[in-house]
Amino acid sequence: MAPPRNVVKIAVQMRDAIPQLIQLDQAKPLAAVLKEVCDAWSLPHSERYALQFADGHRRYITENNRMEIKNGSILCLSTAPDREAERLLRGLQSESREGRREALRHLLLLAPDLTFAREVISRDGLQRLGTIIEDGDDLGEVLALALRAFLELMEHGVVSWETLSIPFVRKVVCYVNMNLMDASVQPLALGLLENVTLSSPTLGQLVKSEVPLDRLLVHLQVMNQQLQTKAMALLTALLQGATPAERKHMLDYLWQRNLRQFIYKNIIHSAAPLGDEMAHHLYVLQALMLGLLEPRMRTPLDPYSQEQREQLQALRQAAFEPEGESVGAGLSADRRRSLCAREFRKLGFSNSNPAQDLERVPPGLLALDNMLYFSRQAPSAYSRFVLENSSREDKHECPFARSSIQLTVLLCDLLHVGEPCSETAQDFSPMFFGQDQSFHELFCVSIQLLNKTWKEMRATQEDFDKVMQVVREQLARTLALKPSSLELFRTKVNALTYGEVLRLRQTERLHQEGTLAPPILELREKLKPELMGLIRQQRLLRLCEGTLFHKISSRRRQDKLWFCCLSPNHKVLQYGDVEEGVGPPTPESLPEQLPVADIRALLTGKDCPHVREKGSGKQNKDVCELAFSVSYDHGEEEAYLNFIAPSKREMG
Q1: List the disulfide bonds.
Q2: Which of 157, 305, 573, 648 could form an SS bridge with 594, CB 3.0 to 4.6 Å?
Q3: Element (H, E) at 616
């Protein structure tokens, strides 16, 4: 006869004792279960003991998580978390260096468990760790262990980062600024300061004032990839916490110190593979660089500004007045105004007063900046573009100003200028770190592409929107290839002619239509069982291989990873935390299990609980697209295993 549904067969281990094989009644209070286990081994005071999972992080069993115990689970009897916390915190005060080190090692092993972490925190464990960190008596392994344990306990969110004292933060800053510091300490100190900066504006200002940018540049230029990554993380955190004016000043200084060139040559093109965390921080840095353009993008032209009127005249003169000559010399004021208005229309402005075209935001003054940059950095190409089109009388002229304004809007949209940084994205473009004035340089390539495409399409003014759609497709397809330099981008985008775009569109349309043709549908129905079998086999194989996922908190992107895979017999999902840079773990080494039979449903997008919790801001759009959750039976309640796919390809 099969046991009741709420009874599971498990093994319980204890050091130097024969394991017990018991039937655990999940309806029985945990205290009663513990007493029975202790009685079987003749152990008094069962309240001094607790059950833990025997593998992985050895999490304590509580009334909240006991339903995770399944048939075949192996548990171990250990000291209760409150008593273990007391013992280890006493060990931190040991006069023996070795005693303190052993206590820290054990504390670090148990710190990921929330039950244990709460016991430590309630006994002033964070303050005791803080004392070790502040005293700095041992700048080697003991300090590194204390920092790691402190970070692990804070990660639970039981205590706010804003509660940290100024002297404590200053001491951690000292470890970052010190020379000849232990290599294991500084990445941890940088990681702690990153958390502080992202969570507390007040303490973030302290970190900003105490950690010189030059010191972060030193850390970025080391060969230690972990130290390099953590330095970049703190740098992007400081930039995110700065005001727009401060951010511009900081980035200008970093660029003067050749940080851009160093990133391009020594990080992006390093022999070592670029880690996911570094890729995310480079994405954030790129977004902040492009974000400097937002004020110009959102500022309309002021018709009463003398400087802006002069810039418009410089644009006109560069196209129609040879150097040192003035076409309007000797003309009356009315004739000169009439001539200027005609030349502005030839330049491609819709109004004889060009200020009216640039009142639209976006792109505002950013479009004027782009046009001026093109006219000054590529004067021959600029003159050729304008004169070639202004002299045509067959209605096929390409309006330079109108095209530039719309192209600036398009580029801002494709590059998400002014949008908040995503918590998960790693989508940076290497070419933005390989070029000064990268946005304006990209505009110069793109405006010449637009003129080329206009001629290939033999477009007229009525076709303007169609041309912009084609140019958008050309730019989007090429940006998606992530070319490593602007020259490579130029080569690839110019190879994507209007004819090639049409061919790609036709291929995609034929593929879509072909799959719907009656003979194809009939053949598909015949092959469907076999195809479904192959698809099922391939997907099961992919699930068994497993995937690395990032842990995402409600506050920020985490650098922690976890791995999930399907067991070889397809009956259990196995998962657990892993370290970055370590190869995929074996299924047997993963501590957590979820029987497939307990799974209720698969949720995606906005239906996922971790997406609903994060709200609907722009920065969470990509999170929504990559989110999925597995709901499963957790006793009488429904629980969730939440995921953020590494990419849209993996999501598909």
Answers
A1: none
A2: 573
A3: none
